[in-house]
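Re: arginine structure - here you go.
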Amino acid sequence: MENILRKKIAEAVKVLYNGAIDEAQIQIQETRKEFTGDFTFVVFPLMRFSKNTPEKTADDIGKYLTANLSEIEGYNVIKGFLNISIGGKWWTDLFSAFYNSEDLFADCRVKNPEVILVEYSSPNTNKPLHLGHIRNNLLGFSIFRILESCGHKVIKTNIVNDRGIHICKSKLAWVKFGNGETPETSGMKGDHLVGKYYVMFETAYKAEVENLLKKGYDDETARLSAPMMVEAREMLVKWEAGDEEVVRIWKMMNSWVYEGFEETYRLLGVDFDKIYYESETWKDGKEQVLKALEKNILFRKEDGSVWADLTGEGLDQKVLLRSDGTAVYITQDIGTAIARQNDYHFSKCLYVVGNEQNYHFQVLKAILKKMGYEWSDGLIHFSYGMVELPEGRMKSREGTVVDADDIIREMIATARELSAELGKLEAIPDEDKDEIFRKIGLGALKYFILKVDPKKNMTFNPAESIDFNGNTGPFIQYTYARIKSVMRKARSLGIEGDSSLLGSAIPCAKEVGLIKLLRKFAAVVTEASETLNPSLIANYCYDLAREFNQYYHDYSILGEKDPVTRNFRLLLSGKTSVVLYTAMWLLGIEMPERM
Ligand code: ARG
């Protein structure tokens, strides 16, 4: 319709004013809610042709369009705004076409699909996943679904930082204090058990440092020479040398952690096509660094450490190998990026990583560029903000961060309690109920996090997230379940939707409102993929659910006597449920059929 209007307006300019205007320059918008009309044309650019007031110009054009386009029902003018109303029949036909198109993503597909890697999660193997990882995993997974739905070839990847000094710390504490404790003997989830030893390391180390400070050591010397730290560093050197005993313990404890992670990923509903391990990529990284050193792209300091000088790029100097030759965090990223390029020949690699690492990724790109890898232009840091709990809320057992498993469990438990209060699910068997509570609990968590612009810091408020009446996942799920219940009821009454009848229905204003929102779906998904912003889809879901609820409140679907209108309402509701389901699927959120 927008195109038709543009064409006709250009024609009007020619006929009425003998002027020529480029169709592409004619801007048509959807009419804002507070005005009457469907499409709005702002006439100011036409005044150089009409040589008249905006009001008169708008009226001229409005008259011309009404006389020459049968779809137009009427118009009104507010200052230079021409608000055009399209007849109901046009909307019915539009809906009919939308209803019959099987593929909701047809208009989202890009002309030139790319190979895109999306790296997300990327945990360290010294502690369990926390609330920040939840946001990370949800964003990464949703970005994957959005890009893939737009036709790109997307590979979900993860880099597990399974080696390095921080990993040695938990291993060392286990060797010293563990008495052979395992997940089996302790009954603890593997990642939590290892996390416990990481905390033990920190506690013992802190005590040592304080002791040394009391003895008059300065801060840095105390931190470097505390026995726990010295031993952890020795362990790392041994690990890099392939020491059998160190490697055995490392493998065993990491395998505990992986089992734990697996479970958290399963609960969150995320997965990966390819997992990289730092223990396998750091060596290549180190070799790359040494090669670049030979070519004088990097330099060595007196103590033997190797550095990149990025001052020419507006960044700092950055250490790449320590004086004892061991690799640092960024060393493996160099190796990992190269491995990924060789494995997939990606045009883009998105790193879903918190904004505290903005500098790290600037440096990584700059170093790879210096090393001559032109594809490094395609490395993109998808930087997202911090997520916290409201003040005074639970802390994890480690006492520092909010544990992911705890949050998930608590959300599901809250969903159960709330549903019991509402008492709507009594007739349903227990396993089915469990599935519903899982979907609601996770839907609340996921939606609340994903509805926020990824760049922004946020507070996750569990109670607010599960409120059935707000801008929440459960509200949208409830709207969906409500439609499903109407459809079940229709079936039980023997009422079948018939799409061939659609053309004879004339929609009311609320129905036109719904149709307008439905037709926006593809544009919203396209924008979300171009701006890498799932929150656009989340908020679209909310708008659609709210619009539907108002409609449902005002109009009866199955109680409608006229069969054509009833059929239209049923199919409009059904399509709304499909769009809601699909949009929430893009966010990784499952929908219960009843709740
Ligand atoms: N494991 C790191 C951390 O917990 C994040 C890794 C991010 N990804 C990367 N390619 N550096 O801080």
